């Protein structure tokens, strides 16, 4: 009994000693792990994938390796079983070191007197690949310690993933994904059993079992392991038989180089991210590249070498195609410049937004007449693209024909700050930086924008005026950032106008006009014909096209209609070959009303011709049309009478057309002015100041800087009523000159007396007068 108690006490002491030793070893391991941490940071070759997971673009890693990241989802059961059977059958049962395998290897090596087998587990191989050291017993212990650290900090699947990412395949090729993609043209999860067997045997002898040359030995080793799989019942007999019959088709394929501009952009902004998933549709991207290359090949004969295209899905704002330039390798013409993000002059592409804002502000409706006459805006005198003026045009015609003067006038009415504010809401970064320097020329391209910004803006027009940022990352999720740039009603009206085909920017060549897609689109041509734009949309897609030279060189034939729109049409016909049946619906807030066909205002008693027009109830201007005025005139129609001087008899009533003063002055200069009201009865003493001439130059309250010794002339110009034959100019209440109402007059300050306030007055031949005050400064 005493003996039994003694042995039981001894056994208990042994267990206590053993447990204490384990705790001590474990504490020592934790201490060493803290002192010598092992948290590997692997430099992977960045991969850019399309929306379906296909590799579009790959680049060398930071250490110049083709080391592509294999994701856990790409490690198929077949790949896992083949690898574990060959390398480490007890991988999921040991803690990084397999003691039984070590004992077996030591015994084998001792019997043979040389190293005939190793005891490295997959975890130990990973440790060696991450921290390569010379083969010594000391370094073997180090390798075992590192393996234990890996097992402590990583899961088994993560360690297996690390192994597959680091396993060597010769030269600078590492990882099963690199080998699978570059030699079999597919990702690891699409490999056959024969291909998997090939990739599992190469890492043991990457120098002799080379993938980059015909290798009968590699075929023999592959088949040897396939038979081993069959004998061990790792895979079905028939599957192994099919694998043995499969030829060893090895061919080094070119590295994927798709979407190079987007790939460079994303890898620069997502550094140390091994796999970047994009929203690119590989099929659409390929067709965009083909169509653009064919299109620009024709324009190269005219010294136009660059183009950029962006295709956006309006529903999700996903970028499905991104082309920065037709040829990334074209160093002669700066092919590596990303035309999608290059800041260029937008030409007329901002006009739809200005019209939409004017519609929301109630300043215009589609049928409203706008003046298209020469106008000076404080020294800024824009012209139309064709340098022609049309007198008066409807707003819808002005937009569809891209007339400049009506657009500038509308921008003046809605204000430049409002336009800039909406553009900032729509993500226009350059305009946000330039906002303090922008003026009325902004609507004609006097600012900097990018194709990406413009495409996003037009996508907002296609989505009831709601702006959302474009998405290039498939994993980003839906961006909840939204901004109401314009109202749904305004965006619908602008869309209807931009859908019209009776317009000068419709390509006239027969092979383009035969297949005009049903889209809303707008062209733009920058000053000097350096940039040609065409941006269009339907309910599903928005497509932006830019054509030009990255060097900024202008070309006489370069216009949005000729250089960009034909490509835009081809792209839409490619996206939807059968056209689109769905189209935009008018929002409930949009109303209809009859308006005078000659002014676009609410019809008055004298309006005989009326048309239907869109309008916003309680917002759009409701002024009644008064373009006809009835005047009492003498029987010979040489005099007119006001109510004060009208005789009781001996007169007649006649209607005269009333035009805005700028339009009337333009028509007078053109010789097309309508019959005007005769001169007022000279015997009448009543003066009507409400119709006094309007001084348009100089501008009231402005400061004019002139040279002190040789001051420049100051232009005096006015707009007067149709019955005015002559006007009289006064400077500081001193008579200066008499002139016709449409004649510009030039006054020069006295040298040395150019500082101070200046009063300029204009009176017409009916005694009506207007004054303005300006300030002169010298330098």
TrEMBL record:
Keyword tags: Carboxypeptidase, Glycosyltransferase, Hydrolase, Multifunctional enzyme, Protease, Transferase
TM spans (from-to): none
Enzyme class: transferase
Reactions listed under catalytic activity: [GlcNAc-(1->4)-Mur2Ac(oyl-L-Ala-gamma-D-Glu-L-Lys-D-Ala-D-Ala)](n)-di-trans,octa-cis-undecaprenyl diphosphate + beta-D-GlcNAc-(1->4)-Mur2Ac(oyl-L-Ala-gamma-D-Glu-L-Lys-D-Ala-D-Ala)-di-trans,octa-cis-undecaprenyl diphosphate = [GlcNAc-(1->4)-Mur2Ac(oyl-L-Ala-gamma-D-Glu-L-Lys-D-Ala-D-Ala)](n+1)-di-trans,octa-cis-undecaprenyl diphosphate + di-trans,octa-cis-undecaprenyl diphosphate + H(+)
Listed GO biological process terms: peptidoglycan biosynthetic process; phosphorus metabolic process; proteolysis
Pfam family, one: Transgly
Pathway stated in the Swiss-Prot or TrEMBL entry: Cell wall biogenesis; peptidoglycan biosynthesis
InterPro entries, sorted: Beta-lactam/transpept-like, Glyco_trans_51, Glycosyltr_51/Transpeptidase, Lysozyme-like_dom_sf, PBP_1c, PBP_C, PBP_transglycosylase, PCN-bd_Tpept
GO molecular function: carboxypeptidase activity; penicillin binding; peptidoglycan glycosyltransferase activity
EC numbers on record: 2.4.99.28
Gene Ontology terms: cellular component: outer membrane-bounded periplasmic space
Cross-referenced SUPFAM superfamilies: beta-lactamase/transpeptidase-like, Lysozyme-like
Domain PLD phosphodiesterase per the UniProt entry, residue ranges: 301-332
UniProt record similarity statement: In the C-terminal section; belongs to the transpeptidase family. In the N-terminal section; belongs to the glycosyltransferase 51 family.
Name this polypeptide is given: peptidoglycan glycosyltransferase
């Amino acid at each position: 009994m005493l003996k039994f108690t003694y042995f039981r006490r001894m056994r208990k002491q042994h267990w206590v000693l053993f447990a204490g030793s384990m705790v001590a070893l474990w504490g020592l391991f934790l201490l060493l792990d803290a002192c010598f941490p092992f948290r590997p940071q692997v430099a992977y070759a960045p991969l850019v994938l399309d929306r379906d997971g296909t590799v579009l673009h790959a680049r060398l890693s930071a250490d110049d390796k083709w080391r592509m990241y294999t994701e856990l989802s790409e490690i198929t059961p077949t790949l896992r079983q083949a690898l574990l059977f060959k390398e480490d059958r007890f991988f999921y049962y040991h803690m990084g070191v397999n003691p039984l395998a070590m004992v077996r290897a030591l015994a084998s090596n001792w019997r043979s007197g040389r190293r005939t087998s190793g005891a490295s587990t997959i975890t130990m191989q990973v440790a060696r690949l991450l921290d390569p050291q010379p083969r010594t017993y000391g370094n073997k212990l180090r390798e075992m310690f590192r393996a234990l650290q890996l097992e402590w900090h990583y899961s088994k699947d993560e360690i297996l993933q690390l192994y597959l990412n680091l396993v060597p395949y010769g030269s600078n090729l590492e990882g099963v994904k690199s080998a699978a993609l570059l030699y079999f043209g597919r990702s690891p999860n699409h490999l056959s059993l024969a291909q998997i067997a090939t990739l599992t045997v190469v890492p043991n002898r990457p120098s002799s079992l080379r993938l980059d040359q015909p290798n009968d030995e590699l075929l023999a080793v592959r088949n040897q392991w396939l038979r081993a799989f069959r004998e061990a019942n790792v895979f079905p007999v028939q599957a192994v038989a099919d694998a043995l019959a499969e030829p060893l088709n090895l061919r080094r394929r070119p590295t994927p180089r798709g979407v190079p501009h987007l790939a460079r952009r994303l890898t620069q902004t997502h550094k140390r991210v091994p796999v970047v998933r994009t929203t690119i549709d590989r099929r659409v991207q390929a067709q965009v590249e083909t169509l653009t290359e064919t299109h620009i090949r024709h324009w190269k004969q005219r010294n136009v070498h660059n183009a950029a295209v962006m295709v956006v899905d309006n529903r999700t704002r996903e970028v499905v195609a991104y082309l920065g330039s037709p040829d990334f390798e074209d160093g002669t013409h700066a092919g590596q410049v990303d035309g999608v993000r290059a800041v260029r002059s937008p030409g007329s592409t901002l006009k739809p937004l200005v019209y939409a804002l004017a519609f929301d502000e109630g300043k215009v409706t589609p049928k409203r007449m706008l003046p298209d006459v020469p106008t000076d805006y404080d020294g800024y005198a824009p012209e139309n693209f064709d340098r022609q003026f049309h007198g008066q045009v409807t707003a819808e015609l002005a937009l569809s024909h891209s007339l400049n003067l009506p657009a500038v006038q509308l921008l003046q009415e809605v204000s430049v700050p409002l336009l800039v504010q909406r553009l900032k809401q729509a993500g226009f970064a350059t305009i946000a930086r330039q906002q303090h320097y922008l003026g009325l020329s902004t609507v004609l391209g006097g600012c900097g924008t990018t194709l990406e910004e413009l495409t996003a803006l037009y996508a907002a027009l296609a989505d009831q005026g709601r702006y959302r940022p474009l998405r290039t990352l498939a994993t980003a999720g839906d961006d909840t950032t939204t901004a109401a740039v314009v109202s749904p009603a305004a965006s619908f009206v602008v869309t209807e106008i931009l859908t019209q085909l009776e317009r000068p920017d419709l390509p006239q060549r027969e092979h383009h006009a035969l297949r005009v897609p049903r889209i809303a689109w707008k062209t733009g041509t920058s000053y000097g014909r350096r940039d040609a734009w065409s941006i269009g949309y339907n309910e599903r897609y928005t497509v932006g096209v830019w054509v030009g030279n990255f060097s900024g060189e202008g070309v006489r034939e370069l216009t949005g209609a000729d250089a960009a729109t034909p490509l835009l049409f081809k792209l839409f016909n490619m996206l939807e070959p059968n056209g689109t049946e769905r189209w935009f619906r008018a929002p409930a807030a949009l109303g209809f009303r009859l308006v005078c066909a000659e002014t676009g205002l609410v019809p008055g008693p004298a309006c005989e011709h009326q048309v239907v027009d869109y309008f916003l109830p309680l917002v759009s201007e409701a002024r009644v049309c008064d373009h006809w005025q009835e005047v009492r005139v003498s029987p010979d129609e040489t005099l007119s009478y006001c109510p004060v001087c009208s005789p009781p008899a001996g007169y007649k009533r006649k209607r005269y057309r009333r035009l805005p003063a700028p339009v009337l002055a333009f028509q007078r200069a053109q010789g097309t002015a309508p019959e005007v009201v005769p001169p007022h009865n000279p015997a009448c003493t009543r003066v009507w100041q409400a119709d006094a001439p309007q001084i348009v130059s100089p501008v009231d309250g402005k400061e004019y800087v002139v040279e002190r010794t040789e001051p420049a002339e100051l232009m005096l110009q006015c707009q007067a009523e149709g019955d005015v034959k002559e006007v009289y100019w006064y400077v500081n209440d001193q008579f200066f000159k008499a002139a016709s109402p449409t004649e510009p007059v030039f006054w020069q300050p006295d040298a040395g007396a150019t500082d101070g306030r200046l009063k300029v007055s204009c009176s017409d031949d009916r005694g009506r007068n207007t004054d303005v005050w300006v300030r002169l400064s010298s330098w």
